[in-house]
């Protein structure tokens, strides 16, 4: 800006009297503008209650979940409990000698626990006593159970064998804006998304309920799915029930981002400063 323009600006400012300034700040147009600014600032810091409520749609509708009978397949590094019983308990005992190599886990307190089970190796196989090496990855528990039962009968190792298979590492991870982010171990091997969020302490007020991310590994490929809990679509979604090793991420909303950046903390200070300035100028004599 040229020097002459700066001098002209200062000369114009000097022409204003205290009366002119008082008249400016007491005018209806100015006060209306300040009021609008204060209201807009307050509203911008407030979130919509609709975004914090689950299932905003009509809840008087019955939903059928198509994936409720979907049995997950066994994956690499799964830890399986395989129990064999028959009319001869002593003969069946040798098949219950679990391969517990590398089946250790550590707790937050530093304690190490040892879990008996059959670990699915990187080649997708498990190794059973006498039966030897069996492929498990890619099969359901039902298919593997029938296969083991058939081998015991065909080789005449047991009479009327009963084979039971359970997951020892059926777990889901809950991350992001929940009260207690954690890895949940599910003994029942069946849990819904809503139950998992409940065990994690529910989504905080700063979490987005309309854009939850589900990460699931399918055929060796990790896929991401977006879930909206503000509608009723979750009840008919194939992702209503979680599978082992699923990861749930709840991302923060705009209010959380603003508070973490420090901008929101300065809003009351700025508004207070503007109010004091208006009061001081209006009372000029």
Question: Would you kindly provide a written description of the structure presented here, covering whatever features stand out?
Answer:
- By secondary structure, the protein is α+β, with helices and mostly antiparallel strands.
- The protein is 32% helix and 20% strand.
- It contains eight helices and twelve strands.
- Strands 9-8-12-10-11 form a five-stranded mixed sheet, covered by helices on one side.
- The longest helix is centred in the C-terminal third of the chain and has 20 residues.
- The protein starts with a helix and ends with a helix.
Could you give a quick summary of the protein structure above?
The chain has 285 residues and is an alpha+beta fold.
Q: Features of this protein?
A:
285 residues, 32% helix, three-stranded antiparallel β-sheet, five-stranded mixed β-sheet, single chain, alpha+beta
Radius of gyration: 33 Å
Question: What would you call the structural class?
Answer: alpha+beta
Strand content: 15-25%
Put simply, the count of helices is 8
Instruction: Please estimate the helix content.
Output: 25-40%
Low-confidence stretches: 99-113
Succession of helices and strands? HHHEHEEEEEHEEEHEEEHH
- What is the tally of beta strands? 12
Arrangement of strands in the largest sheet: 9-8-12-10-11
From the spread of the alpha carbons, the general shape counts as elongated
The major β-sheet equals:
5 strands, mixed
Query: How would you state the average pLDDT, rounded?
Result: 76
For the termini, the CA-CA separation is 34 Å
């Amino acid at each position: 800006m040229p020097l002459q323009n700066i001098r002209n600006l200062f000369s114009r400012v000097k022409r204003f009297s205290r009366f002119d300034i008082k008249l400016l700040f007491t005018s209806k147009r100015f006060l209306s503008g300040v009021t609008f600014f204060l209201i807009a600032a307050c509203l911008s810091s407030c979130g919509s209650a609709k975004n914090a409520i689950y299932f905003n749609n009509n809840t008087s509708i019955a939903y059928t979940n198509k994936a409720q009978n979907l049995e997950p397949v066994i994956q690499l590094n799964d830890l399986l409990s395989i129990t064999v019983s028959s009319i001869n308990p002593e003969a069946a005992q040798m098949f219950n000698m679990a391969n517990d190599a590398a089946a250790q886990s550590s707790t937050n307190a530093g304690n190490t626990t040892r879990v008996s089970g059959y670990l699915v190796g990187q080649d997708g196989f498990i190794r059973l006593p006498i039966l030897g090496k069996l492929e498990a990855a890619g099969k359901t528990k039902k298919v593997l159970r029938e296969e083991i039962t058939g081998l015991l009968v065909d080789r005449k190792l047991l009479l009327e064998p009963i084979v039971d298979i359970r997951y020892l590492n059926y777990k889901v991870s809950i991350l992001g804006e929940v009260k207690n982010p954690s890895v949940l171990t599910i003994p029942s091997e069946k849990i819904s998304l809503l139950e998992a969020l409940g065990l994690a302490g529910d989504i905080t007020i700063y979490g987005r309920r309309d854009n939850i991310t589900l990460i699931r590994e399918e055929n060796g490929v990790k896929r991401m799915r977006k879930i909206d809990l503000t509608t009723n679509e979750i009840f008919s979604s194939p992702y209503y029930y979680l599978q082992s090793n699923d990861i749930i991420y709840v991302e923060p909303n705009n209010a959380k981002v603003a508070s973490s950046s420090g901008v929101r903390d300065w809003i009351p200070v700025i508004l207070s400063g503007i109010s004091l300035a208006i009061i001081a100028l209006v009372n000029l004599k």
